[in-house]
Amino acid sequence: MTLTIALSKGRIFEETLPLLAAAGITPAEDPESSRKLIIGTNHPDVRLVIVRASDVPTYVQYGAADLGIAGRDVLIEHGGAGLYQPLDLNIARCRMMVAVQNGFDYDEAVKHGARLKVATKYPKIAREHFARKGVHVDIIKLYGSMELAPLVGLADAIVDLVSTGNTLKANHLSAVEHILDISSRLVVNQAALKLKYATIQPVLDAFAAASADNRE
Ligand code: AMP
After folding, report:
1. How far apart are CA 137 and CA 139, in angstroms?
2. pTM greater than the 0.85 cutoff
3. Which of 18, 59, 126, 168 is the most exposed place for a label (fewest CB within 10 A)?
4. Hey, which of 161, 166, 171, 174 would you mutate to test ligand 1's pocket, going by the most ligand atoms within 8 Å of its Cβ?
């Protein structure tokens, strides 16, 4: 029975390699250099499909992939329908933060009930966060380079992922609120888990054991 695992290129792929190795799976090619979207492995029955990070839950939801690895941010925005989420892999860790231009008095604006323009790739997370705080916001959906928005007057604040903080710093922005800790999770198609249990369970066990090392 073929097992298809959906992954995105970059940090998630690199940090998943040791987990795949623990499950005895070695990709036949590097997706960074190969242009292939379906990558075989040393296992005749296991293949990887390379998709955009935000598309991973969709491939798994509809069963085009049995397993996938996606950030908590992506899973919250997707909503998780049809997905079983058994494992936090503790990889690709970062924080979802609110950030503003240096000098913008965020606390003062919030205290005075100002209506804030917030640019983000994560409208659901942003909307829920500000609703919890009772802050009125207009959400402006962007697909990248959120850091630019406050600099050119598109938004008062951004909601974005922060890892080292270097991108904020380079663009004269400061984090003012921590919304969520983010890491990547393993997701499984609910029907596949039942139908392919014997194939999937050993992979889950190997990933669980190997990802325990990522926990501090
Ligand atoms: P940094 O400069 O290290 O704080 O990284 C911030 C930039 O990298 C922002 O543009 C983020 O959207 C992106 N980023 C940081 N961590 C992650 C992650 N785990 N997954 C996806 N994007 C990330």
Report:
1. 6
2. yes
3. 18
4. 161
My answer on whether 16 and 60 are in the same domain is: yes
Tens of pLDDT along 122-133? 999 999 999 999
Domain count, the chain: 2
Tell me the CATH number at 107: 3.40.190.10
List the domain range (segments joined by +) for residue 56.
3-92+183-215
Select from 100, 95, 124 the least CA-distant residue to 110: 100
Same domain, 86 and 8: yes
Rounded-to-integer distance, Cα 145 and Cα 170, Å: 13
Please tell me the distance between residue 11's alpha carbon and the centre of ligand 1 in angstroms.
10
115 and 142 together in one domain: yes
Residues 118 and 129 in one domain: yes
The Å distance, Cα 200 to ligand 1 centre, comes to 30
**What is the tens place of the pLDDT at every residue in 155-164?**
999 999 999 9
Q: Is the CB of 109 under 6 A from ligand 1?
A: no
Q: What is the largest CA-CA distance in the chain?
A: 62
Phi, psi of 112 (to 5 degrees): -90, 5
Around 118, how many Cα atoms within 13 Å sit in the side-chain half-sphere?
Answer: 28
In this structure, are 135 and 71 located in the same domain?
no
Burial letters 164-193, b for 16+ CB under 10 A, else e? eeebbeebebbbebebbebbbbbbbbeebb
